[in-house]
Each structure stands twice: as C-alpha cells, then as structure tokens.
From TrEMBL, chains A, B:
Keywords: Magnesium, Metal-binding, NAD, Oxidoreductase. PROSITE patterns: IDH_IMDH (PS00470). This is Isopropylmalate/isohomocitrate dehydrogenase. One of its GO terms (molecular function) is 3-isopropylmalate dehydrogenase activity. Its EC number is 1.1.1.85. Residues 2-320 form the Isopropylmalate dehydrogenase-like domain. It is an enzyme of class 1 (oxidoreductase). It comes from Ferroglobus placidus (strain DSM 10642 / AEDII12DO). GO terms for biological process: coenzyme B biosynthetic process; isocitrate metabolic process; L-leucine biosynthetic process; tricarboxylic acid cycle. It comes from the Archaea.
Amino acid sequence: MRIAVIPGDGIGKEVTEAAMLILENLDLPFEYVWLEAGDEAEKKYGKPLPDETLEEVKRCKAVLFGAAGETAADVIVKLRQELETYANVRPAKSFEGVKSIHKNVDMVIVRENTECLYKGIEFEVDGVAEAVRIISRKASERIVRFAFELAKREKRKRVTALHKANVMRKTCGLFKRVFYEVAREYERIEANDYYIDAACMYIAMDPWRFDVIVTTNMFGDIVSDLAAGIVGGLGLAPSANIGDEYAIFEPVHGAAFDIAGKGIANPTAMILTASMMLRHLGFEEEAKKVEKAVEKVLAEGKTTPDLGGNLKTMEMAEEILKAI
Amino acid sequence: MRIAVIPGDGIGKEVTEAAMLILENLDLPFEYVWLEAGDEAEKKYGKPLPDETLEEVKRCKAVLFGAAGETAADVIVKLRQELETYANVRPAKSFEGVKSIHKNVDMVIVRENTECLYKGIEFEVDGVAEAVRIISRKASERIVRFAFELAKREKRKRVTALHKANVMRKTCGLFKRVFYEVAREYERIEANDYYIDAACMYIAMDPWRFDVIVTTNMFGDIVSDLAAGIVGGLGLAPSANIGDEYAIFEPVHGAAFDIAGKGIANPTAMILTASMMLRHLGFEEEAKKVEKAVEKVLAEGKTTPDLGGNLKTMEMAEEILKAI
Ligand SMILES: CC(C)[C@H](C(=O)O)[C@@H](O)C(=O)O
Ligand SMILES: CC(C)[C@H](C(=O)O)[C@@H](O)C(=O)O
C-alpha cells in the first residue's frame, strides 16, 4: 500500500519524523513515497505544489502531510480540492494529564472541504473586492450524510449543524434545509442547529453540548481551531481529509516557524493524525494502540514545552513508542 | 435630545425596562421616543421594521435597542445599514465577582458593520447558492481608522486585525493592506494581525494578547460572541453601533425566548449598553457612574441566575441603581 509522505516546511518536518518513528515500528504493509510541497518546494521548483507531487500523490492510497508555511493555502487547499477529499474530520478531545480550559470534552468537527469561500472566486474592481461563497445542495448533502454516518459508526448521539441562516438565507439556508432533510434518515441520532456566533460562545463556555458538529468550510476552519484551543491547543489536534478515492492526513497546526528547527514541537497532533490514517486504512487495532499509548504518556505528565513539559519532539515520540 | 427606545421582543422588553429605570433616575436631558420593531411588530404591521419606526429613528440622536426574535436580521442589520452605523464596538471585559473562563481580560472588538456577507447579496440556481462577500477600501479604511482612534482615545497599546488573507487574497488581502497603511499614521500604537482561525483559538487560550481587535463584519460577529463567552457570557456584553450621524446601542444578546417573560434575564448587558450610549452622547460622568455601580454590584456577588445568582431582572437593576 503506497503512502505519500509530505513533511513540508517548519515543524512539519520534525513532527513527520516523529510520526514515522511510530509507523515504522508497527508492522504495516506500507510503502512510503516521500514528496515535496510548501515554501521550500516553491523555491526549488517555482511551485509550492509541484506537478510531480500531485501526480505521485494520485498513485497513493493516502497522504500524510506535515505542514506548509506561507504557501499553506496553495498546497493544502489545492490538494483537498484536487483529491476531492470533501470531508475534513477534526476531533477535539481532552486528555487526562493535560492542562486545558475544559475537561471531558469529546467532539468531532466535520467540515465541508471543497467549497464555500475556499473556492477562491474573487475579483477586485476600483477599490471594491468581492469573494463568492458557494454552497451547493450536492456538497451539503454529501457532508451532512458523512457526519451522520460518522455519528452512527462511533455511536454518537447528536449531530449539530452550524450556520448563519438568519443573515445568509440562501447559502446557509440551503445548508440548514439539507441538514434536516438528511437528518430524517437517521431517526436515532438527534439533530439540532446553532448560529455560528452562538456556537463559538458555547464551545468556549459549555462544549459538552456538542457531539458531532457539521458545518461549511470557513466556519469549520474557525470552530476547529477554537475547539482545539479549549482542549489544550494545536499540539494535540489531528485531522483527516476524507474523499471517496483519496485521503489526506494532517495535523490542524501549521509550520510554526517561531519554534521550528529547535526540536521542541509537540508531535502528538501528528502521531494522532497517523493513527486516524491507520483507522481509515483498516488498521483499527494499530490505530487504537497508538491512541492508547498517547493517552498513557500524556496522563503521566510527559510532554513537550507547549504543554508545560520538557521533552523534545523525538523524546516524546520515543515515549509513545515505548508505551505501545 | 431625542432618544429612540425599541424594546423589541422576548427579554428585549425586560432588559429595556431595567435600563430605563437607571436612565430615568439620572438627570438627563433626554426625550424618549418609544418605537416598535421585531417579531411582534411584524405581526401587527406586516413588517418587522415598520416605516414609521425607521422614520422616527432618523429624527433621534441615538437608538436604544433591546432585542428582536426571529426577525433580528431584518431589524438590526437593516437599521445598521440604513443609519450607516459603520462601527460595531463590542468591549469584552472581565468583572470581579463573576465566574468566567479567564480573568483580567479587557479587549474591545471593532467590527465593520455595513458590508461583507451582510450585504445580503445572494442567488440560488439549480441547487447551487451563492453569497457575495463585499470588502471595499473605503469601508475598510473607515473602520480601521475608527479602531486606531478608539485605541488612542482609550490609551490602548495595540490594534490587531483579524482576517483570512491566505484564502481570501483579494477581499481579506485588501482589508489587511489597508490596515497596515492606516497603522502607519499611528506610530505609537502597535499593529499586528492574525488569521481568524488562530485568533479564535487564542481568544479562548490566551486572550491577554488582544487589546483592540478590528475585523470584517462576519468575523466580528463570531469573535464578539466568543469573547463575551470567555468573560462570563452574553449577560454582560454591551455593544454600540456608531456612525457619523446616528448611533444604535444594543446588547450582544438576542431575544432569548427560552427565558423570556420570567423576569430573570440579566439586565447588565443592557445597562452597560446604556452607559456606552451616555458616553457617546457626552455624558461621561454619568456613564462612569453606571459602570462603577455595575462593577460594585457584581463584585458583591449580586446577580441573576445566568451567573449563579438569584436576583430577578428588576431587582438587579435596583441594586445597580442603589449603587449609583
Ligand atoms: C492553511 C489554511 C489554508 C488552512 C485552512 O484554512 O483550511 C488551515 O487553517 C487549516 O485549518 O487547515
Ligand atoms: C441577529 C444577528 C443578525 C446579529 C448579527 O449577526 O450581527 C447578531 O448576531 C449580532 O451579533 O448582533
């Protein structure tokens, strides 16, 4: 099974090395294809997402992606759209032993990944710039169904749609309407909805009211960082971009140039991202093993400086490996 | 001086009554013009913002607005645009005696109030809905300058722009460019910027890095609810919509039908809103008096059920009145 590995820029490289230490020590039938993308790739090849990378990626079953710097949007948004990975799945879960604003949070954000303001349709004329937000019935139905199927599979009780249908009556209105249409097919799962502004307040104040969240692209971008924030920050937040054919796995964090090269980045987000990849590819047992090991290490208070610990990136990875 | 008072729907009525108790007990040269808008107005007149209300409002110096229900967008967004109140000012400040996620927070969000996705330009064709996000140089310059002037007046140290210029290069790009252009005129105030997603995470995890925030309409909507959330919730969050000619003062909260009619709504947001109105109209001393009284009452632990107290709406207002 061919797996594309794209470390990218900044701490992307460091956390990829850490995740690879774990993967290479599990008995997996993977063939790793190392590829370039990001700021450095742009310097070398004139393009942040070189054609060769894009071609190679399409011959792989999954992509493990570290982070890109200034060119992040050109790389990751393009990859998501090219590979039609329409569902961006971002769990926000608290861990024992980690200082965080709230405890016992366990939600999953399902973010539509192909349209909304991310289509990149923009104009500027005479000092007035316009961006077009596209919301289609097709993509909305697909992402809402994905969210309910995820809820069913993970035995979750509720799916909540976030929107701003009082202001965007047509675009958010369509999304909300489709949400309740699809919800009717899942009688045993509760369906409700919030305005995006109120939802952000509640994610901060009372995150336990959320279980699975489904929302459009830009709102999903915002709530996933916020939700990561209340459970301890980006050092712990993994994500998966799932399509019918391809899948891309990347931590929610970026290249973090301020701490890059020091070997102190928290590899946990990337290791949990690798575990999401394992589960997606059918290696449930291995995925669980990695998660349990991460939980154990964090519960013992072993961690990197971002969470108050003193482990270096690779030391943290080694602790997790030992715990497997 | 003519002041339009629009209680509106739900708890809007209750908190307006509470704020009026305070205002009527201060020695102010105001003539109050009571007007209707909202769900009930729609039922009575067929329009949530009756023509008469709009005409009368334009003969007043300021509008004190409670809340509207289902029709909120038709009322408040329309009012903001009709009256060209281009700056939505939303302080988020922690109070002693109030349980909140964070302490010692003191930021002001300055939200552009006339354009962005709030223009209401939307279409739907064959299952694809589109919304147009408008960002103009003119409105961006105006709001950024407003934010820096506010920072100067309130002796604040930093203005932070929030945007998503890596994805919306033209619209957010324009906003960001204009931000730094204007910033150059204010040498003694620090200027920086964040991506909206990262900013939401930091508002939750580390709000002290923000002082004045300036952002476009939809992002401003989101971060103002979020910022209210980390300092104790919507029960305490006031706001002002400021234009060159008119001004509208409204709490950040809505009609809250779930608790309406019970007399338990927290009137603090509305009373602080009235105090913002007093300051805007030149009654600085009275504005301070009201704020100090609110601080004192909250510090004594006297409050409504939303913050764990047992005072009713009017009891809370009376406590504040006594403390003045
Ligand atoms: C880098 C950026 C384009 C990206 C996004 O907005 O999707 C990032 O914030 C994320 O959430 O993965
Ligand atoms: C009611 C709604 C239209 C309004 C807005 O989005 O501006 C509200 O959320 C607010 O923040 O005042």
